[in-house]
C-alpha cells in the first residue's frame, strides 16, 4: 500500500506545524460521518530555474473557498497565508515535486445542519501522475454524474467522490484503466477525477460547464489552446461524437494530461504521437516547469 507519510512527516493543522503521526481528529465530526468537507489537489514542481513553485496556487485556493461557500461550510482563512503554509510544508518535508492536499473539515455534529466551525489540514507527498503514463483504456460507466439540481456539482466536496470511487472501481473490475461518466441527460461529462477533451478535424472539444467540476487544469488546457492558436469549442457532447473523435485525453492536477488508447475497446483514428493532445501535453509540462515551449510539427 502506498505510504503518504512516515514518522518524520510534517503537516499544517489548524495553524500549527505538527507531525502527521501526532495529529488527532474527533471521531464524531460531520466530515467523517457525512462526507461534509472540501478539498483541493495542487501540485508543486521543481522548475527549469531550480526553484520549487506551486502551480496556480491562487486559482486553487479561490476554488477552495468557493467550494466551501457553495455547501455552507464557513471559510475563515486567508488564502495568501494558506499558500505560504503550503510552501512551508514543502520545505519542512524536503519536497520539490509534490502533490499538496488542503482539506477543510467539520467538527463534531451529528445533525444535518450546516457547520458553524471548521478545521484545516494541509499535507503533501511525492506522487507521480495519478493515471500513469500509458494511454488509457476507458469504458463508459453505468454510474452518472449527480444531478446538478441535487448537488453543487462545481464544488470539490469530499462526499461527491464516492460517485468517483464507484465508477473507477467498476471500470477496473471490467479490465479497463478508467471510467467515463455521462450526465443525467446522457451527454459526456468527465472522468472520476479528470476533465475530458477530444480532437476532431483540427479543433479541440470539451464538455460545457454545468454538469462537471470546472478543473484548474481544464482551464489551463483552454489557455494553452488560445496560446497555440488551436480552435476550442465547449459544448454538449454525445457518446457517438466522442467515439468518432480522432484523439481523446483526460486532464487534471493529479493526472496532468494523459491520452486515451480506446473507449469501450474501440480505438481512435489518429495516433497519440501525432495528435493535438500530445502537443497540449507537452505544452502543459513546459508551463508547469516554467520552460519555453516551441511547438514542433506534428508527425504524419
TrEMBL record:
GO biological process: isoleucine biosynthetic process; L-leucine biosynthetic process; L-valine biosynthetic process
Pfam families, per database record: Aminotran_4 (PF01063)
CC cofactor: pyridoxal 5'-phosphate
Biological pathway: Amino-acid biosynthesis; L-isoleucine biosynthesis; L-isoleucine from 2-oxobutanoate: step 4/4; Amino-acid biosynthesis; L-leucine biosynthesis; L-leucine from 3-methyl-2-oxobutanoate: step 4/4; Amino-acid biosynthesis; L-valine biosynthesis; L-valine from pyruvate: step 4/4
Broad EC category: transferase
Highest taxon, organism lineage: Bacteria
EC number(s) recorded for this UniProt protein: 2.6.1.42
Catalytic activity: L-isoleucine + 2-oxoglutarate = (S)-3-methyl-2-oxopentanoate + L-glutamate; L-leucine + 2-oxoglutarate = 4-methyl-2-oxopentanoate + L-glutamate; L-valine + 2-oxoglutarate = 3-methyl-2-oxobutanoate + L-glutamate
Functional note: Acts on leucine, isoleucine and valine.
Protein name as it appears in the record: Branched-chain-amino-acid aminotransferase
Natural source organism: Chitinophaga barathri
Gene: ilvE
Amino acid at each position: 500500500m502506498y505510504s503518504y507519510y512516515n514518522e518524520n512527516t510534517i503537516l499544517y493543522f489548524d495553524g500549527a506545524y505538527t507531525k502527521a503521526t501526532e495529529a488527532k481528529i474527533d471521531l464524531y465530526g460531520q466530515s467523517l460521518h457525512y462526507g461534509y468537507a472540501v478539498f483541493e489537489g495542487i501540485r508543486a514542481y521543481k522548475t527549469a530555474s531550480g526553484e520549487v513553485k506551486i502551480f496556480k496556487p491562487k486559482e486553487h485556493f479561490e476554488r477552495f473557498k468557493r467550494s466551501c461557500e457553495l455547501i455552507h461550510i464557513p471559510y475563515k482563512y486567508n488564502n495568501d497565508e494558506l499558500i505560504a503554509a503550503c510552501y512551508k510544508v514543502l520545505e519542512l518535508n524536503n519536497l520539490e515535486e509534490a502533490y499538496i492536499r488542503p482539506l477543510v473539515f467539520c467538527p463534531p455534529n451529528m445533525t444535518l445542519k450546516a457547520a458553524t466551525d471548521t478545521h484545516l489540514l494541509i499535507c503533501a507527498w511525492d506522487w507521480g501522475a495519478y493515471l500513469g503514463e500509458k494511454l488509457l483504456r476507458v469504458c463508459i460507466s453505468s454510474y452518472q454524474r449527480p444531478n446538478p439540481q441535487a448537488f453543487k456539482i462545481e464544488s470539490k466536496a469530499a462526499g461527491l467522490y464516492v460517485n468517483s470511487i464507484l465508477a473507477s472501481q467498476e471500470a477496473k473490475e471490467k479490465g479497463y484503466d478508467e471510467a467515463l461518466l455521462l450526465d443525467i441527460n446522457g451527454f459526456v461529462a468527465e472522468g472520476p477525477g479528470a476533465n475530458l477533451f477530444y480532437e476532431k478535424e483540427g479543433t479541440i472539444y470539451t464538455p460545457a460547464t454545468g454538469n462537471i467540476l470546472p478543473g484548474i487544469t481544464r482551464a489551463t488546457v483552454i489557455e494553452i489552446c488560445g496560446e497555440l492558436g488551436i480552435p476550442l469549442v465547449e459544448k454538449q457532447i454525445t457518446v457517438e461524437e466522442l467515439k468518432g473523435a480522432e484523439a481523446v485525453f483526460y486532464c487534471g492536477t493529479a493526472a496532468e494530461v494523459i491520452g486515451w488508447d480506446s473507449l469501450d475497446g474501440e480505438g481512435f483514428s489518429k495516433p497519440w504521437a501525432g495528435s493535438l493532445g500530445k502537443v497540449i501535453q507537452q505544452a502543459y509540462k513546459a508551463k508547469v516547469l516554467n520552460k519555453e515551449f516551441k511547438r514542433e510539427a506534428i508527425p504524419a
